[in-house]
Design goal:
- The protein has a 7-stranded antiparallel β-sheet with strand order 8-7-10-11-1-2-12, with no helix packed on it.
- By secondary structure, the chain is mostly beta strands.
- It has a single domain, classed as Tumour Suppressor Smad4.
- It has strands spanning 7-14, 20-25, 31-36, 43-44, 55-62, 65-72, 79-81, 84-86, 88-90, 96-99, 102-109, 117-121.
- 0% of the residues lie in helices and 52% in strands.
């Protein structure tokens, strides 16, 4: 069960770089995040193997639960989930999304009051 207030995190890893953690509060509302290397994206991955707008993540309500949908943005570069090319699919906790030479690990955890958006580096 995915209540609306789940904490959503993406661990962003680019080979040879320190991983970063992006966290979002589900907050009972639907929202969309764009991943890519462009300047106007929500999840920025600075690598030429990643398209400027590579994939879209949508936190959406289905019935009483929320789910994360990932969609390839047809940039000519593929989006993979757990090693399989996808056009679109719902994510499960712990899924690995690969964009070029980078990957993101999707996690759902218990709510964190007042989280908003946090960008942190693990060190």
């Amino acid at each position: 069960m995915n209540p609306p207030s789940m904490r959503i995190t993406f661990e962003v890893v680019l080979e040879g770089s320190e991983p970063s953690i992006l966290a979002f509060d589900g907050g009972g509302r639907e929202f969309t995040l764009i991943a890519g290397r462009g300047a106007r994206v929500d999840i920025q991955v600075n690598d030429l193997s990643v398209a400027e707008r590579h994939a879209q993540f949508t936190w959406m309500r289905i019935g009483s639960e929320f789910h994360m949908l990932v969609e390839d943005l047809h940039s000519g570069l593929d989006t993979f989930v757990n090693g399989h090319v996808v056009d679109s699919t719902f994510l499960e906790n712990g899924d690995k999304i690969t964009l070029g030479n980078a990957w993101l690990v999707f996690r759902l955890t218990a709510p964190d009051p007042g989280l908003g958006m946090v960008v942190a580096r693990r060190g």
